């Protein structure tokens, strides 16, 4: 089961997730020289993957960065997914889709059975739980899973997620309903194929969230460029030092843009991923 595979990757390598949110401005000039957009983006991603895969449990390409580049970008997205698969790397495509069931069925096919096939996708639950249903048929058929937005890392998340509903916040209510739905999808380590996106930037709530949803795997944004520390992010790990993947995107991939050659690039990315690993271990 895919959620068990993710658990085992975290157990083996630690909870690191690298976000491949590749903007052209992040790519060093020497890597862009005499290449078209597709080649430059894929070459950059390939280098990041090669340098970090020993330490990373899963990769998270954010599709908006590729869509913004048009067909050239989507070709690079496809090539990146293929390369991750060739290297036996797990991938969560960060697409944050939400739509009525008929349209959601097409999204599910695109990311679970099409050219953009991924192990997990991110979804938005605010159109209702029936908007998630079309993805479930792929859980067994294609061994897939989802991460649903519950308590996101952005400051504006409070506008909706912290609305009071009875004696609880809206995000707590949504998490509880998703937990009920997800029980039938539990793997051998006790985690459901329905995971939550929980930001590391809300450290005051982290312990309660972890205790409240102890059988749910978390995708944790907010570390690094958004201000959360390793200490903040670790609060969302479970007692088994597992149960969460902690993402860094710009904190890794945007810091090598001024490197002048391949060796400088390799040294910089390796330094950054080892620093993140050490920070999370501490």
Automatic annotation (TrEMBL):
GO terms for molecular function: orotidine-5'-phosphate decarboxylase activity. The active site is at 96 (proton donor). Keywords: Decarboxylase, Lyase, Pyrimidine biosynthesis. It catalyses: orotidine 5'-phosphate + H(+) = UMP + CO2. Its EC number is 4.1.1.23. InterPro entries: Aldolase_TIM, OMPdecase_AS, OMPdecase_type-2, OMPdeCOase_dom, RibuloseP-bd_barrel. PROSITE patterns: OMPDECASE. GO terms for biological process: 'de novo' pyrimidine nucleobase biosynthetic process; 'de novo' UMP biosynthetic process. The keyword 4Fe-4S does not apply. Residues 15-265 form the Orotidine 5'-phosphate decarboxylase domain. Pathway: Pyrimidine metabolism; UMP biosynthesis via de novo pathway; UMP from orotate: step 2/2. It is an enzyme of class 4 (lyase). Belongs to the OMP decarboxylase family. Type 2 subfamily. PANTHER family: OROTIDINE 5'-PHOSPHATE DECARBOXYLASE. This is Orotidine 5'-phosphate decarboxylase. The lineage of its organism: Bacteria, Bacillati, Bacillota, Clostridia, Peptostreptococcales.
